[in-house]
Amino acid sequence: MSGTAGTRTRHHATEVAVVGAGPTGLLLAGDLAAAGHRVTLVERRAPGLSPLTRAFGVHARTLELLDARGIADDLVDTGAPLGEVRLFGGVTVRLARPDSRFGFLLVTPQFQVEALLARRARAAGVRCMPSTEVSGLAQDGSGVTLHLRRAPGADPANTPAVRTVRAQYVVGTDGHRSTIRRALGQPFPGVSVLRSMVVADVRLLEDPGENALTVRGVRGAVAFLAPFGDGYHRVFAWSAEEREPGSPVELADVRDTVWRAHGTDYGMYDARWLSRFHCDERQVPQYRIGRVFLAGDAAHIHSPAGGQGMNTGLQDAANLSWKLAAALDGVPGAEALLDSYHDERHPVGAAVVRSSGTILRLATAESAADLARLTVATGLLGGLPPLRRRIAGRLSGLDIRYPAPQGAHRLVGRRAVDVPLRGGGRLYASLRAGRHVLVTPDSVAAPAGTGVGVGVGGAVHEHWADPGRRDQWLVRPDGYLAWAADDAAARPPLTPAAELIA
Ligand SMILES: Cc1cc2nc3c(=O)[nH]c(=O)nc-3n(C[C@H](O)[C@H](O)[C@H](O)COP(=O)(O)OP(=O)(O)OC[C@H]3O[C@@H](n4cnc5c(N)ncnc54)[C@H](O)[C@@H]3O)c2cc1C
């Protein structure tokens, strides 16, 4: 992203400071700026995008959230849609769903996601401070002061000399080694699960099967393959003879592991990226500490099995951004909304740590007992369509739901499916306003006043395309149901945000 070179101020004030311009920080900063707020994004790296591919897959729910920002179709154009996940040779999980425009896993490099989000953040007016790192913070009742310094190697002539940033709220999206988390004194409990896994982006002479992501393991070797759609495949490979974390990666080692796991190396050649990384499973106990929030890898990390890390971070950002905007807009009850960020997203993060850990442990099973469990589990899964559908719902993020208040309508807290609206529109296009959307039958007039829902201007009022529908939905800006009624007579809550939400 472009910087602010030449700025000589040493102190800078903003409404929200976001620390870390990875995918989580870019989405969050872009949302807040699009909602009309002053946002400063501090990033240690020099201007420009990270060249690392890292995440390779964008799941359906994340695509829906990007659709609600008008950028999903552009992202889909950059990658290859995969309709199936094949686990351990025994289970095929189909991702297609009639209730989503995106019944697939989009395989595309992380930098494509970041490029789109960076462009959107820039256009929305986010102030970026590249080559600048946060070294500490202090918070009080009215705000947070961040202490900054030039990142190592940054050119003083091109780096702003800002030394502190004062913000009403700070969000740490600064990755798994988060300075913000440490400055808050927050632990990051968990375990290291693999010392050394290899990632490679390669060409293959032999096609491993179209339109699927494939994971296979035998005792002591696991390999995972997915096509990018541009002639390259992403490979993750692990073998029990783990090398030291920093040791060099040779294509020959990747070939060897893939051969052992799949019975072929598919004739792999021309590695455009080879790297080694280690896997931890950790989660911070609190996502909110006063005026400071943690999101993305700063809050949770786990193995890449299931391809959830970036997706979960983007969904954290979508959950938090409208709540922060409500707080900045002075919406009554916004404190409870801000608390609900932890209440809603911490359990999702914990579930992702658990499920990616289960896939990894099954795949890397070494003991005969583990292998027996794997065989039974995959045999069972293979024979149980409802269970496979549950796995698909988990992987895609489409079945995530948030806790609802007692007595709430059964849909409250669930994801709103995209529906056609009168006049030719559809729900996720309407959500692009960044506000709640109230969908009612034609007979329901706009509620008195514009106070329904949170945020400036209240909710957007839409009508079902289907004239037979009598029910009503109030959909949050992040695409979850805040309120619903089965008949046209009910009135949506006109009152504070806290009543709309668990
Ligand atoms: C090999 C590999 C494969 C992966 N595959 C997948 C996948 O298929 N699907 C998936 O969903 N996820 C995957 N992940 C995980 C995914 O890459 C991360 O979950 C994702 O990048 C997290 O995004 P983030 O924005 O939270 O953090 P990051 O992307 O880590 O961004 C944090 C940013 O903060 C900056 N920063 C750090 N400290 C400071 C500081 N003190 N001051 C200022 N800036 C700072 C960093 O420079 C960085 O730009 C993979 C990860 C790896 C390593």
UniProtKB/TrEMBL annotation:
Q: Which residues form a coiled coil?
A: none
Q: Which cofactor does it need?
A: FAD
Does the UniProt entry include the keyword Flavoprotein?
yes
The protein's UniProt keywords, in alphabetical order, are: FAD, Flavoprotein
Ranges for the FAD-binding domain? Answer: 14-355
InterPro entries this protein is in? FAD-bd, FAD/NAD-bd_sf, RIFMO-like
Can the keyword Lyase be found in this entry's annotation? no
- Signal peptide residue numbers: none
A matching Pfam family: Rng_hyd_C
State the source organism's domain of life: Bacteria
Could you tell me what this protein is called?
Answer: NAD-binding protein
